[in-house]
């Protein structure tokens, strides 16, 4: 991108190679320099002038212009260069680092929106303090600035001392932001700040090492959010995202190693594989080495590479040096594309009190043959009828972890007094697909008795998924009874966790479990029927929870984790009741919408209503749009909810919405809200048998490609799973992909995605 002007604000985006669009430069990440930047502008047009580093001089240039000089004493690559100029308001505070440096921290926003920046500013301060405690990293400049830009193409950018954000990740108030928005702001503010060390002070030698900064920094922001909120709940959210975004990428034509071997367009490799799978590799490294050795390895990595452009080998060498471990086999995680499959079988000898688990890992390579085995840390335990069997032991399991480093292996537990249910991949200790043949009864034992929160949630997901793919009313009754017992015992003790247990796997996750000939309509019907079944069976319990979780009259909104958890379960209860009784659900949702005092409850009620056709829905949608006509970020939510309605009329609705005065194809947030939500969040309508969904997205790509190729290319990735669809839908997808391919002058971004999706690249 380089330097551009949007909504009256001059700003930059130089990652990966935008600096060459500003001036001549060898803008590879390993070319590092110290920058002094003088910015001049019309004083009325751009009273605020910001750059990297510390402000060292300001002054006038004639009567109407002024200048500012910024100096960054730390060597950095050109992709971290930034400047901003415009009319901006700010909120600011001071932070003193652990080594005594006073830092002025400021968040700049459009004038009038300053009160909505307070939460982001608080997140900056908490991020600085946490990084000192958790990783020993102190900030190294006198100022730290964050700027929110409404049309910023990227989510956020970690430019040294001057982070630039899309304003959806900065602005928040109870009236306009949901609990999820607050959590996202907290996480993304932290992510960009943490780049100050993992990306800026130690950067990448080349773009093939992108995972070195992004995977590591995602891991760091995940740990921060886990400490700020509920660790088990946050971990479940991370894995849900990984499975929804990265697992399908690994299974489709766009799959690639965490460290790619080649690329046609680097912009297309800011992917879930690089970010999220990259973070899982770092997490596995901590599991293998232990927390103490991991921290020592991080300290060594920073000490050895500060001010340098590093590689994955440099990163692993630091941990090998402090631990004495050979990590050469572990490094295969960076090189092997695809998601490993871990098959497990069990045998029990009651007479000997012996229980054996046999593991077999597989990951077909490009030629269809398995490569060398990966190092897979399997956190595990055994669960009996009354809870974990703590007396069982195996010499192969240390600190609750078995390290599988062979293609096949068996481990044996002694002192096993009853036939257990294995609890494997606790806390999702490795990003693999687990093949473990458990019955519904065994899974429900894990839900009731396991000590690992992640695997308790996973057990409920497994039963739900089996019931979606193989519906059975009798088994659904048994599952509802198990959920009822769970709610009675634990819902009010941990509402956020209970809400996750109630949430069924998405239609996309269900489709991901079907190897071929996927029928999105059949999956949708089965999931809808299971929701209705559970909503009916659990109705009395859900209604009691709804009442028990209702906020006290006049209670002030707080985005803290405990309050958010209560809202999450209450809204989940309403949604499930509505699935069982749509008429009653619509009435209750309309009542909730009218009485809501915050955007979380208001949007949840609108989302429930959106799934129930009728006049109540349309009235609610119209009133919502009128109320928030001047709130762009809220209108994005309104567009997104409608784009995901799984009905035949949604395509016509999208046509109307594209003509809505608030829709503009030049705003990336608005395009992602309407067309992106449709393509990625509405499987039945995107993959319509008549091809209308594919056509609508393809037409948007064609219009958008010349103006915003990065967003266009991202939309194209929605076609990535076309080979797994049933044949008639797959043919319609290919037809539209070939139509796009024939467009003259297609951008390099889109052409790259297209070639790989069709198998031409």
UniProtKB/TrEMBL annotation:
It comes from Methylobacterium tardum. It holds the Pfam family Peptidase_M1. Its cofactor is Zn(2+). Residues 8-80 form the Aminopeptidase N-like N-terminal domain. One of its GO terms (molecular function) is alanyl aminopeptidase activity. It catalyses: Release of an N-terminal amino acid, Xaa-|-Yaa- from a peptide, amide or arylamide. Xaa is preferably Ala, but may be most amino acids including Pro (slow action). When a terminal hydrophobic residue is followed by a prolyl residue, the two may be released as an intact Xaa-Pro dipeptide. PANTHER family: PUROMYCIN-SENSITIVE AMINOPEPTIDASE (PTHR46322:SF1). It comes from the Bacteria. Residues 338-435 form the Peptidase M1 alanyl aminopeptidase Ig-like fold domain. Keywords: Aminopeptidase, Hydrolase, Metal-binding, Metalloprotease, Protease, Zinc. This is Aminopeptidase N. Belongs to the peptidase M1 family. InterPro entries: Aminopeptidase_N-like_N, Aminopeptidase_N-like_N_sf, PepN_Ig-like_sf, Peptidase_M1, Peptidase_M1_dom, Peptidase_M1_pepN, Peptidase_M1_pepN_C, Peptidase_M1_pepN_C_sf. Residues 119-332 form the Peptidase M1 membrane alanine aminopeptidase domain. Its EC number is 3.4.11.2.
